[in-house]
Amino acid sequence: xxxxxxxxxxxxxxxxxxxxxxxxxxxxxxxxxxxxxxxxxxxxxxxxxxxxxxxxxxxxxxxxxxxxxxxxxxxxxxxxxxxxxxxxxxxxxxxxxxxxxxxxxxxxxxxxxx
Amino acid sequence: xxxxxxxxxxxxxxxxxxxxxxxxxxxxxxxxxxxxxxxxxxxxxxxxxxxxxxxxxxxxxxxxxxxxxxxxxxxxxxxxxxxxxxxxxxxxxxxxxxxxxxxxxxxxxxxxxxxx
Lengths: 114, 116
Description:
The structure holds two protein chains of two kinds.
Chain A: E1 5-7, E2 10-14, E3 19-24, E4 31-37, E5 43-50, E6 55-58, E7 61-66, E8 71-76, E9 85-92, E10 102-104, E11 108-113
Chain B: E1 4-7, E2 10-13, E3 19-25, E4 31-38, E5 42-51, E6 54-57, E7 64-66, E8 76-78, E9 87-94, E10 106-107, E11 111-115
Parallel strand pairs in B: 2-11
Antiparallel strand pairs in B: 1-3, 3-8, 4-5, 4-9, 5-6, 7-8, 9-10, 9-11
């Protein structure tokens, strides 16, 4: 069963606009990670937020984590056509061996129109 | 530094055939894993390993075998391919420590497998 669920499934915006993607999960986690996948390629790690963190920034990316609601959001500011990709959240809920069993959601397909 | 290398990139099998998907990493990562990606289902963990000689099952292990004889290599074997195993397979690796690794996964570019 999927631990993380992304919302929306697809998002289409214009260049320069902000893009927000949400992820909900079911169980307690050690950390939550966001990955990006360009068409026909492997996933690339974007950002990791630990369960005791509430917000994290990396360049144009901002990730928030609300453990009480079991949800996270990824904000991409000032989007570019090159940001067009699928974005996945992944949760690490391993109890003893953290990092052994990342569970991925189904992803959000982001299209940024020039 | 090549990262995670998967071969082959594409493969077509007939039902019942066997094959091995290769995965190698040159980052000295302890943790390696195999995922399959299907439309509408995200990535699902097949098998993983936290070091040479150690493997464990993931969410969907049936029909697949793995071994980890070296730190660098983690091959995935399909003993008798079935159409349900048509998918894109990704190998991923990371650093790992017991009780709190928090290391990101590094992915290969995938093997696209079709079983007819």
